[in-house]
Amino acid sequence: MNDLLDLEKLPSTVRNAIVQGHTGPIRRALHVSSSRTGVTLNLYGTHQNVFLRATPLRSPDLPLYKRERWATLNLPLDAPAPRLLWNTTADRWLLLAFELINDHAASAFLAPDSDDVPFVLDAVQRLGKTLTPCPDGARQVTELVAGLWAMGQRMLDKPPTRLRGRDLFETALQGFAPEALQGDTLLHGNLAPWHLRIKDHLVYAVDWSQACQGAPWVDLALLAPHFVEAGHSPEQADALLSGVFPWAEAPPAQVAGLAALWTLACLYQAEYGHPMRRPEQTRLADAGRKWLVYRLTRL
User: Fold this and answer.
1) How far apart, in whole angstroms, are the C-alpha atoms of residue 78 and residue 102?
2) DSSP-derived secondary structure letter, 213
3) What is the pLDDT of residues 42-56, one digit of tens each?
4) How far is residue 197's CA from residue 206's CA, in Å, rounded to a whole number?
5) d(CA 299, CA 297)
6) Is pLDDT at 2 greater than 80 in this prediction?
7) Quick check: 183 and 213 in contact, CB under 8 A?
8) Which has fewest Cβ within 10 Å: 60, 100, 141, 154?
9) Mean pLDDT (whole number) for 62-88
């Protein structure tokens, strides 16, 4: 498939900036699905292949692009993530060009019998160690939590009959203190199988648009429900994480509170999010409930 027509969505001045300044003439372009506004493509040029993200400067998603740019510019060279090769602004568009891995990389498969699981756990542990201390300029984890809380509150404001398991969420949130999530690690902020790409047995964490500074165990807590959704029991998921530093340092009450907010956010997305992603968000919310019930027994 060749999606050069997608490239035509960019103004000619922007295309010229790409071709003349970096890639050379484009031989092939592949559309990459994204929930963000803008254009997302794998570009194959005569001089350079890149994974391109492009958005108008007036886009409501511009802060996500800027945060991803900041995070990837500040990642150490040994971090398991694609490099940002270049970035520029042309004709009121922001362009981010990354090392191209997605054409031969697959999303991590987290099922109990998957060979990907140990590679993922190793990569997440390396992220925590490599990204501590956090570079200056990151937003705080409390901002990430505030976004989850806004969606969660929308669900908690519903009549009791519209929110199954409301008492579980309220119990978990009673002991939740967002400031307890603070720390000195650069967090990915949204670790999920589709943001963990595996190529030649190497795991790359992609899409750093939710990056923030916080405690290193937070990324593990956000990844945990995905193991449950993939078929692990909550007990098995917890056992997997127990072998990863610094899971043992995670305060149980804060893990439960974060599980509640994450699940409520999934429920919100299942009801109000993009229609194509609602079934997926429903499955994730079901996994989040199971993880939450289990974590409440650990208090």
Assistant:
1) 19
2) E
3) 999 999 999 999 999
4) 7
5) 6
6) no
7) yes
8) 60
9) 96
Using omega within 30 degrees of 0 as the cis cutoff, is the peptide bond preceding 135 cis? no
Q: What is the amino acid identity at position 155?
A: M
Q: Give the whole-angstrom CA distance, residue 16 versus residue 27.
A: 14
Q: Is 7:43 a contact under the CB 8 Å cutoff? A: yes
Three-class SS of residue 16? helix
Burial class of residue 46 (count of CB atoms within 10 Å of its CB; 0-12, 13-18, 19+): exposed
Query: pLDDT (tens digit, 9 = 90+) per residue, 162-204?
Result: 888 899 999 999 999 999 999 999 999 999 999 999 988 889 9
Q: From CA 70, how far away is CA 65, in angstroms rounded?
A: 9
CB burial readout 253-269, b (16+ within 10 A) else e = bbbbbbbbbbbbbbbbb
Tell me, what's the pLDDT at 101?
A: 87
Single-letter amino acid, residue 271: E
Give me the mean pLDDT over the 116-137 stretch: 95
Tell me the one-letter amino acid at 197: R
Residue for token digits 């967090």?
A: 187
At 180 the three-state DSSP class reads: helix
Strand order in the sheet with 196-199: 106-107, 196-199, 202-205
Look at the block and give the residue holding tokens 């989850």: 148
Please tell me whether residue 199 adopts helix, strand or coil conformation. strand
What does the block give as tokens for 161?
A: 């009959």
Residue 220's SS3 state is helix
- At 70, the amino acid letter reads W
Asked whether 211 and 67 are in contact (CB, 8 A), the reply is: yes
Number of Cβ within a 10 Å radius of residue 247? 20
Q: State the DSSP string of 88-126.
A: EEETTEEEEEE---TTS-EE---STT-THHHHHHHHHHH
CB 286 within 8 A of CB 230: no
